[in-house]
TrEMBL record, chain A:
The gene is gatC. It comes from Devosia oryzisoli. The lineage of its organism: Bacteria, Pseudomonadati, Pseudomonadota, Alphaproteobacteria, Hyphomicrobiales. Keywords: ATP-binding, Ligase, Nucleotide-binding, Protein biosynthesis. It catalyses: L-glutamyl-tRNA(Gln) + L-glutamine + ATP + H2O = L-glutaminyl-tRNA(Gln) + L-glutamate + ADP + phosphate + H(+); L-aspartyl-tRNA(Asn) + L-glutamine + ATP + H2O = L-asparaginyl-tRNA(Asn) + L-glutamate + ADP + phosphate + 2 H(+). NCBIfam families: gatC. InterPro entries: Asp/Glu-ADT_sf_sub_c, GatC. This is Aspartyl/glutamyl-tRNA(Asn/Gln) amidotransferase subunit C. Belongs to the GatC family. The keyword Protein biosynthesis applies. Its EC number is 6.3.5.-. Heterotrimer of A, B and C subunits.
TrEMBL record, chain B:
Residues 25-473 form the Amidase domain. Allows the formation of correctly charged Gln-tRNA(Gln) through the transamidation of misacylated Glu-tRNA(Gln) in organisms which lack glutaminyl-tRNA synthetase. The reaction takes place in the presence of glutamine and ATP through an activated gamma-phospho-Glu-tRNA(Gln). Hydrolyzes indole-3-acetamide (IAM) into indole-3-acetic acid (IAA). InterPro entries: Amidase (IPR000120), Amidase_CS (IPR020556), Amidase_dom (IPR023631), AS_sf (IPR036928), GatA (IPR004412). This is Glutamyl-tRNA(Gln) amidotransferase subunit A. SUPFAM superfamilies: Amidase signature (AS) enzymes. It catalyses: L-glutamyl-tRNA(Gln) + L-glutamine + ATP + H2O = L-glutaminyl-tRNA(Gln) + L-glutamate + ADP + phosphate + H(+). Heterotrimer of A, B and C subunits. HAMAP family: GatA. GO terms for molecular function: ATP binding; glutaminyl-tRNA synthase (glutamine-hydrolyzing) activity. The lineage of its organism: Bacteria, Pseudomonadati, Pseudomonadota, Alphaproteobacteria, Hyphomicrobiales. Signal peptide: none annotated. One of its GO terms (cellular component) is glutamyl-tRNA(Gln) amidotransferase complex. Belongs to the amidase family. GatA subfamily. It comes from Devosia oryzisoli.
Length: 95, 494
């Protein structure tokens, strides 16, 4: 499989990365080089093989459904480029 | 007084408890060495001399009373991937500009608990994506090694290039590093240092900037096997804040270092004998096997049939997880923000400006393979191949193999700005061909210096172990270290 220029732009939108017109060809070549490289996985017979979900055999630990952390909103927003009253500030999203 | 920076971590520890010198003197020696070297090597992206001296003074107070932890007063460098409270933590990326976390990663907290002193944050490939430390927003790290008769700058490897360079150039007694596909072992091999990626789950990932969560593991880079074992003991341990952290007692790894290899069976995987492998790598590998045999190990040919598929499967799994993990950098919560006409515009412009080319390329690949219609063909397929890779190792260990010996890298360090590598992303990825299988299977792997190439550059061997049997790796690596007996220190030019 290989990607065309339209697909490169679509992936850029999905990934929320602006791809400028003059970058499209470069990305297209690089992505196709990588996709060409991974193509060799088609040689592998994976019939009846379970996809890996955990590299070490483990079941996720459970705990009581109670609050164990928090109460420091000012720390959470401390590194925000823009915040007010412990809220993150973003451009208007609802008209 | 002898140059304190040249001491091994173990010897520095002895000197501190003997009161031959103080933690403050040791720390000042490292701070002076960093001041002198960092313009040339670019190993540190941030230094914390005042904090280091405060920590050293606190250690001296404890040492004076005969107290202190296992790393009391030992100055360390920390990879920029670990969150350090109030201190530069940017994964060497522009998108985390100015980020100073309000919390401490579990691994670094464990080191401070044991008395270690922080010298600063170490350069790395941006978000740990790279094999040469050239993708850092802060510029490449220059290796302290140069080929004989040459002044050309070489790469220290990556992504933990700053860690490896700083350890090799005596700019810290040891360093933290991380390894997703080879990022501890490859730079260790390039710089004549020892680096171990422990079993997945041995070190907590909490507070470490995530790249590919099912592959990422922290580990140390140090100048000797013993030093690496000492650091590994402190860094490891169960952490309820990481759901994949394993609740298992941490052995005293240093106690295993001199255990020897008598009676062990060392596997030699035939699939690691790659076409076009340089003769000197092949020779080094044979030499390593001879050393282990001479100390009482048995060598056994084994097959890991899916080896060649590990790297292509990795370049689906790792970018997929990265595209998900790096979605959090959106110009809202921390770091860089580039304003746009609306919120989507702001996201797109922030991420375009904040991420470097290699990171963007991997996010794009990851987004593509996870997108509707391609998920089964790429991601699910790669995870199935991953199950087969893991089974290869299980079969080998099931047949009585205790550890596996392989080359660490397909070559010695290459030049900065290598044009052939820059033109072809896949060529750079091939650096991890011997190391990436270990991450895919979640196993422990150690790189140990074993010889030099024709130009005097260090070459490493890799040992791969059973899950949670890092002790055997330390013991076998120590045999190689002792047998090689070489001086893997760089000639100081900086």
């Amino acid at each position: 499989m290989s990607v065309d220029a339209t697909t490169v732009k679509r992936i850029g939108r999905l990934a929320r990365i602006r791809i400028e017109e003059d970058e499209v060809t470069g990305y297209q070549q690089e992505l196709n080089a990588i996709l060409g490289f991974v193509e060799q996985l088609n040689e592998v017979n994976v019939e009846g093989v379970e996809p890996m979900t955990s590299v070490t055999p483990m079941t996720l630990r459970r705990r009581e459904d109670i609050v164990t952390d928090g109460g420091y909103a000012e720390k959470i927003v401390k590194n925000a480029p823009l915040s007010e009253d412990n809220f993150f500030m973003v451009p208007k999203v609802v008209e | 007084m002898t140059d304190l920076t040249k001491l091994s971590l173990a010897d520095a520890r002895k000197g501190l408890t003997d009161k031959s010198f103080t933690a403050l003197e040791l720390t000042d020696a490292y701070i002076a060495a960093i001041d002198k070297a960092n313009d040339a090597l670019n190993a540190y992206v941030a230094t914390t001399p005042e904090q280091a001296r405060e920590m050293a003074k606190a250690s001296d107070a404890k040492l004076a009373q005969g107290q202190g932890g296992p790393l009391e007063g030992i100055p360390l460098g920390i990879k920029d991937l670990f969150a350090t409270k109030g201190v530069h933590t940017q994964a060497a990326s522009h998108i985390l500009d100015g980020f100073k976390p309000e919390y401490e990663s579990t691994v670094t907290a464990n080191l401070w608990r044991d008395g270690a002193v922080m010298l600063g944050k170490l350069n790395m490939d941006e978000f740990a994506m790279g094999s040469s430390n050239e993708t850092s927003y802060y510029g490449p790290v220059i290796s302290p090694f140069r080929a004989e008769g040459s002044n050309a700058n070489l790469v220290p490897g990556g992504s933990s290039g700053g860690s490896a360079a700083a350890v090799a150039a005596w700019l810290c007694a040891g360093a933290t590093a991380t390894d997703t596909g080879g990022s501890i072992r490859q730079p260790a091999a390039f710089t004549g240092t020892v680096g171990i990626k422990p079993t997945y789950g041995r070190c907590s990932r909490w507070g470490t900037v995530a790249f590919a969560s099912s592959l990422d593991q922290a580990g140390p880079i140090a100048r000797t096997v013993e030093d690496a074992a000492i650091l590994m003991t402190s860094m490891s341990g169960f952490d309820s804040k990481d759901s994949t952290s394993v609740d298992l007692a941490v052995p005293d790894f240093a106690a295993a270092v001199e255990r020897g290899v008598k009676g062990l069976t060392i596997g030699v995987p035939r699939e690691y004998r790659m076409d076009g492998m340089p003769a000197e790598i092949e020779k080094l590998w044979q030499q390593g096997l001879e050393w282990l045999k001479a100390e009482g190990a048995t060598v056994k040919d084994i097959s890991l049939p899916h080896t060649k598929y590990a790297l292509p499967a990795y370049y689906i799994v790792a970018p997929a997880e990265a595209s998900s993990n790096l979605a959090r950098y959106d110009g809202v919560k921390y770091g860089l923000r580039v304003s746009g006409k609306d919120i989507t515009d702001m996201y797109e412009l922030t991420r375009a400006a904040g991420f470097g080319r290699e990171v963007k390329r991997r996010i794009m690949i990851g987004t593509y393979v996870l997108s509707a219609g391609y998920f089964d063909a790429y991601y699910v397929k790669a995870q199935k191949v991953r199950s087969l890779i893991k089974k290869d190792f299980e079969d080998a260990f099931g047949s009585g193999v205790d550890a596996i010996l392989t080359p660490a890298t397909p070559s010695a360090a290459f030049g900065i700005g290598d044009e052939a590598l820059a033109a072809d992303p896949v060529a750079m990825y091939l650096n991890d061909i011997f190391t990436v299988t270990v991450n895919m299977a979640g196993l422990p792997g150690i790189a140990v210096p074993a010889g030099k190439d024709g130009k005097g550059l260090p070459l490493g061997l890799q040992l791969i172990g059973r899950p949670f049997d890092e002790e055997t790796l330390f013991a076998a690596a120590r045999v190689i270290e002792k047998s090689a007996g070489g001086d893997f220190a760089p000639k100081q030019w900086w």
